Request: fold
Amino acid sequence: MEQKVKQRIFISVFFFLSGICFSTWASRIPTIKVNFHYNDAELGTLLLLMPIGSLMGLPISGWLVSRYNSRVPALVGFIALCLSLIFIGVAPSTPLLATAVCLFSFSMRLMNISINTQALTLQKVFNRNINGSFHGLWSTGGIVGVGVSTLFVGLGISMEVHLIVISIISIVLALLSFRHLINNDRVASGNKISFSKPDPYIVFLGMLVFLASLCEGGMFDWSGVYFKEVVNEKLFTLGYLTFMIFMALSRFVSDSLIESIGRPNTFIVSSLLIFLGVSIAVLIPTFWFSLMGFCFTGLGIAAVVPMVFSLAAHSKKYSPGVAISLVATYSIAGMFLGPVLIGYVAQAFHLRLAFFTFAIAGLILIPVSQRFFKFQQDEKNKLDQGPGRSS
Reply:
C-alpha cells in the first residue's frame, strides 16, 4: 500500500476515535444534569470550564506541535482525553467533575491541534482538498458514539460503565495506529506567536470558526436536552444523532462542493442552511419538524470548520501548527461558550428561545466571510503590484 494512503487511513482513525469520545461526553450531558441535580444555569457554569481548560493549552499546544512534530502530542493528548472521560464518569462530586471536565478540554485541544496538523500536512502531499473527509470521519465517529450512547441509555447501562468501555477501546486502537502517523513534520519558521500585533488573516478566520463552532458546540451539548425538555422525546439522543448524521454526510461531499462553487459561495450556502434549520426547530418544535431542522443545521455547519482550517494552513505569518492552534482558540471558545450562553439564556427565558441564538450566529457568517475574501483579494493585489508600483 502506498505510504500516503496508509497515513491517510491511520490519521482517519484518530479523527474517528476523537469523534466517538467527544460525542460520548456530549450525549451524556443530560445524564450529568440529572445525576447532579443541576438547573440550566448551573449546567452552563460547568460547561464554562471547557473553554477555560482549553485556553490553558494555547501556549502549549502549538509550541509542542512545532517543536516536537505532531504525532507524539497527538497520542499523548488522546490518551489524556480518554482518561479524563473516565474521570468524568466516576466523579462523585462537583469539584472532581469540574477538574475532569477541565482536563478533558485541555487534552482535546492538544490532540485536535496535532491531528489537524497531520491532516493538512498530508493534504499538501495529495495536492487536493481532502480535509473535509477527515472531519467527516470525526462526525462519523460522533454518530457511532451517540449511537452507542443511545443503545446504552436504552439498555439502562450506567454512565460510568459506558465511559470506561469507550475510553479503554479507544486507547488500544490509538496505540495500534500511532506508528503509522506522519513523522518529521516540524516546521522551522513561523513558530513564535505575536500577541502585540494580531494578524488580520487569522482574526478573520477566527471569527468565522467562532460563529460556526458556537452553533456546533451548542448543538452538541444542548440538542439532547432540547429533545428531552422541548420536544418531549424520551429517547433524547435522537436529535443529536440526526444532527451528527447529516453533518457527516455533508463533510464527505464538502471537498467536492468547494471545488464546484468555491469557498465564498460555500460559506453563503452553509450560513443559510444553519439559519433555516434552527428556525424550523424553534418555530415548530414537534418531533418530525425538529428532526428536519436538525438535519439542515448539520448540513450547514459541516463545511465551515474544515474550510477555515485549510485556509489557516496557508498563513504567511505562522507555521501550519501555530496557525491552526491560533484559529482553534476561536473554535474552542465558540464550541464551549455557545453551550454556556444557551444555558444562561434558557434559564432567563426558555430553552426554545435560546436556540435561536444559533440561527443568528449562522447568518452572521455571510458578511464576515465575504469581508475575509475581500481582505484576501486586497492582500493579493498588493503583492501583485509589488513595492514602488502602488499609487
